Amino acid sequence: MDSRGAIVKPLEESQVRELAAVLANAGVEAVAISLLHAYANPKHEQRVAELLRADLPGCFISVSSDVLPEIREYERTSTTVVNAYIGPAMRRYLTSLRERLCGQWHPWAIA
């Protein structure tokens, strides 16, 4: 993508799939995706995320154009990386909390 969001070079989907295999073998639990001009056109980022979600089920995928679609790449990338870092822990915590709360009777629950 160029700075206006025009596609300069098509996404190499085969390279993304090769990367997914490497990440799967490494046992990663989170990935941050931040491409240079995704603020102008998030198409490549979104496609990378789609491919990784298909090849890495259960992996937490953080996409900069979803997290912080701003022009400044440092802020966008660092925020996306922090989101990817805390995402798996938050998902585990919230899943556990939901399971604990749903298994108990609450006075405000309608029987």
Series of secondary-structure elements, N-terminal to C-terminal: HEHEHH
Number of helices: 4
Task: Give the low-confidence spans.
Answer: none
What is the end-to-end distance? Answer: 55 Å
User: Strand order within the widest sheet?
Assistant: 1-2
Secondary structure topology:
Blueprint: H1 13-26, E1 30-33, H2 43-55, E2 60-63, H3 64-67, H4 73-102
Can you describe what's shown?
This protein is mainly alpha-helical and 111 residues long. The chain is 55% helix and 7% strand. It contains 4 helices and 2 strands. The protein has helices spanning 13-26, 43-55, 64-67, 73-102, and strands at 30-33, 60-63. It has a two-stranded parallel ribbon with strand order 1-2. Helix 2 (43-55) links the parallel strand 1 and strand 2 (60-63). Helix 1 packs across helix 2 (43-55). The mean pLDDT is 92.
Give a quick set of tags describing it:
7% strand, mainly alpha, 111 residues
How would you sum up this structure in a few lines?
The protein has helices at 13-26, 43-55, 64-67, 73-102; strands spanning 30-33, 60-63. By secondary structure, the protein is mainly alpha-helical.
